[in-house]
Amino acid sequence: MLKRFNPFNKILSSLFKNRPYEEKNVLISDEDYFIRAIKFEDIKDLLSIEREVYAGELPWTKTAFLMELQAADPHLYLLIQKAGKTIGFIGCRIFDKDAHITNVAVLTEFQGQGIGSFLIGEIQQFALLNKCERLSLEVRISNKNAQRVYRKLGFTSSTIKPEYYTENKEDALEMILSLKEE
């Protein structure tokens, strides 16, 4: 309870411009989860998830997460928990009419259960509320499973970005979901 009133935490919280997100319990594939906006003290858990999902790699550092959480652009970063344990997260930043998914990861043991799709759906709602016309993301050219999930959600392939991933110079496939009403 004292942490809540710590003046240092209050100052830091005011620096982070997380958009309001109503935390909630959700049911996904008949399992209970809890979803809420990411706070700066969650970054340690996010890095741990990255290490597991990306085989020891850290695509995003603590500094990268901190910078995103305090970015001036409209953004939404969410985490999802099962029984109090953080099992996944997603982030999005809005540029003009584009909502760009910056990062999404779900612990391996929880993949294939609809959690990633649910998180993308939450970001899609955020994008629509912000009058975006498209939702975009990059995915490793070798990550066929993720591409399949994104296609199932309505994303289409756009362009290949050569050597997008700096650690191994792998290409990325940009994928886009149109949010415009036809």
The string of secondary-structure elements, in order, is HHEEHHEEEHEHEE
- The largest sheet has its strands arranged as 1-2-3-4-5-6-8-7
- Topology, number of strands: 8
Point out poorly predicted stretches.
1-19
Radius of gyration: 16 Å
CATH class value of the domain at 12-133: Alpha Beta
The overall pLDDT average reads: 86
How would you characterize the largest beta sheet? 8 strands, mixed
Helix content: 25-40%
Instruction: Supply the number of helical segments.
Output: 6
**Quick one: CATH superfamily of the domain at 12-133?**
Gcn5-related N-acetyltransferase (GNAT)
Q: Which percent range describes the beta-strand content? A: 35-45%
Broad shape: globular
CATH architecture of the domain at 12-133: 3-Layer(aba) Sandwich
Please state the structural category.
alpha+beta
- Assembly state (oligomeric): single chain
User: Do you know the CATH topology of the domain at 12-133?
Assistant: Aminopeptidase
Calculate the terminal CA-CA distance, rounded to whole Å.
Answer: 50 Å
